[in-house]
């Protein structure tokens, strides 16, 4: 059946279709009365928005998750986090592993596209490792949070403590950004233990599965001459630089504003958590609307950049911004070759980075325009910019306007969340025919640029 479907449509369109069907399926489940708490009714647009946000692991919500959904509804959301976070083909691989079926060339091609990889080699082994690491990390997070919530009295029973623990652990690792507390993690604004474990889960999910695979292999090998790939080096360095940049700038901006009166250690912890969660997670320990507009602008940029490729996060991704920055530096120096860590970057990757960046900027601008038109001057540009970049970067941070948006504004955010989840590579693949174009070279002529 799978092969018959692939013959009728391209792998990219097939994967996108599965994600669309997944969102519709989650929507239908959330529309069931068993998914609601007593006295709650959910409209179709709110159910669709919640489903799209959960599958795209964004975290923007039009209703309070903890106040609206029953245990069954919360369990549906956990499944949606996994479905959208680690990818449909990873779950498909898990199904094939359980049945003992061989994963053929067609299935490997689907995995390659879903995981935004550029080669077929090693995909099956990567999927096994992704599944094992995901289950191990989420299980560890569940145990830690479950014990902590019960011991501190946050939950009355062992069952509720561990259910809250599994929800929060999966939400943090998949960077979904949903919570059952009603205030994200603001109640834990002075609880460094919950913040630290949450930040660790967020980073592990956002850094990328290939990076986790290489780090695991490095830890297993006794040979000290193990060499990390260029992808891992660029990803980890860019990730660390962006976190540090966010920490410093947010602290400097908010020290005399929303952080005023806090001890220095709490100011730094708040700035660090905000910097990390701004990349794609959406969980927060401070009210985003209370931040200085300069901080909101920086957070919007961080959300636009997002997480790493082949991770649970969205945005233009860390490697894209790294290549663009290096090209700009080289251009200023008069150098034509793009190099990172003593390796040359292919012209094709440079070309894709700028195309993806330009198209992402265009999508965000169109999204901002659409929301502004839909809301008829109800919200200023900074609030809409924050909301739109949060949707595109699948982050989920909000200044609190999501639930008050008109239907057309919500639909705009749904589309942005979906594009942010599938990524620009898969988005562009929807419009390619797959047929090889004739290699024709035309005469070159110079243009006046700049």
Automatic annotation (TrEMBL):
Pfam families hit by this protein: TrkH
Signal peptide span: none
TM spans (from-to): 12-36, 42-63, 75-98, 126-150, 162-181, 193-213, 234-253, 298-331, 351-372, 411-431
Compartment(s) where it occurs, according to its Swiss-Prot or TrEMBL record: Cell membrane
Topological type in the membrane: Multi-pass membrane protein
Primary localization: membrane
Alphabetically ordered keywords of this record: Cell membrane, Ion transport, Membrane, Transmembrane, Transmembrane helix, Transport
InterPro entries assigned to the protein according to its UniProt record, in alphabetical order: Cat_transpt (IPR003445)
Listed PANTHER family: KTR SYSTEM POTASSIUM UPTAKE PROTEIN D (PTHR32024:SF4), TRK SYSTEM POTASSIUM UPTAKE PROTEIN TRKG-RELATED (PTHR32024)
UniProt name for this protein: TrkH family potassium uptake protein
Organism listed in the record: Paenibacillus lignilyticus
Species classification: Bacteria, Bacillati, Bacillota, Bacilli, Bacillales
């Amino acid at each position: 059946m799978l092969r018959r479907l692939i013959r009728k449509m391209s792998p990219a369109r097939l994967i996108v279709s599965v994600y669309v069907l997944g969102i519709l399926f989650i929507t239908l489940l959330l529309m069931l009365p068993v998914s609601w708490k007593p006295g709650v009714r959910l409209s179709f647009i709110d159910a669709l928005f919640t489903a799209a946000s959960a599958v795209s692991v964004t975290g923007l919500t039009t209703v309070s998750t903890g106040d609206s959904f029953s245990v069954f509804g919360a369990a549906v959301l956990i499944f949606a986090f996994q479905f959208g976070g680690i990818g449909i083909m990873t779950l498909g691989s898990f199904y094939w592993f359980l049945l003992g079926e061989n994963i053929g060339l067609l299935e490997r091609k689907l995995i390659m596209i879903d995981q935004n990889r550029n080669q077929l080699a090693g995909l099956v082994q990567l999927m096994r490792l992704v599944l094992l690491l995901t289950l191990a990390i989420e299980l560890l997070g569940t145990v830690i949070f479950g014990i902590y919530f019960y011991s501190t009295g946050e939950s009355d029973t062992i069952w509720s403590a561990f259910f809250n623990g599994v929800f929060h652990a999966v939400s943090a690792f998949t960077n979904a950004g949903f919570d059952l507390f009603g205030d994200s993690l603001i109640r834990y604004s002075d609880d460094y233990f919950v913040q630290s474990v949450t930040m660790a889960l967020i980073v592990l999910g956002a850094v990328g599965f290939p990076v986790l695979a290489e780090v695991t292999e490095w830890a297993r090998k006794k040979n000290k001459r193990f060499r990390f790939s260029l992808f891992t080096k660029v990803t980890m360095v860019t990730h660390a630089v962006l976190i540090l940049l966010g920490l410093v700038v947010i602290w400097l901006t908010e020290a005399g504003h929303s952080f005023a009166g806090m001890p220095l250690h709490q100011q730094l912890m708040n700035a660090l958590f905000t910097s990390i969660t701004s990349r794609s997670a959406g969980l927060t320990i401070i009210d985003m609307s209370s931040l200085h507009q300069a901080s909101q602008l920086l957070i919007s940029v961080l959300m636009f950049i997002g997480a790493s490729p082949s991770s649970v996060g969205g945005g233009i991704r860390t490697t894209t911004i790294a290549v663009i920055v290096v090209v700009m530096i080289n251009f200023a120096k008069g150098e034509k070759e793009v190099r990172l860590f003593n390796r040359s970057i292919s012209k094709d990757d440079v070309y894709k980075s700028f195309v993806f960046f330009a198209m992402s900027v265009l999508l965000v601008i169109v999204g901002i325009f659409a929301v502004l038109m839909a809301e008829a001057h109800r919200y200023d540009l900074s609030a809409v910019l924050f909301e739109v970049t949060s949707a595109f970067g699948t982050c989920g941070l909000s200044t609190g306007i999501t639930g008050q948006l008109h239907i057309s504004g919500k639909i705009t955010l749904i589309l942005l969340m979906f594009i942010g989840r599938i990524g620009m590579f898969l988005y562009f693949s929807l419009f390619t025919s797959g047929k090889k174009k004739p290699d024709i070279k035309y005469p070159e002529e110079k243009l006046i640029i700049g």
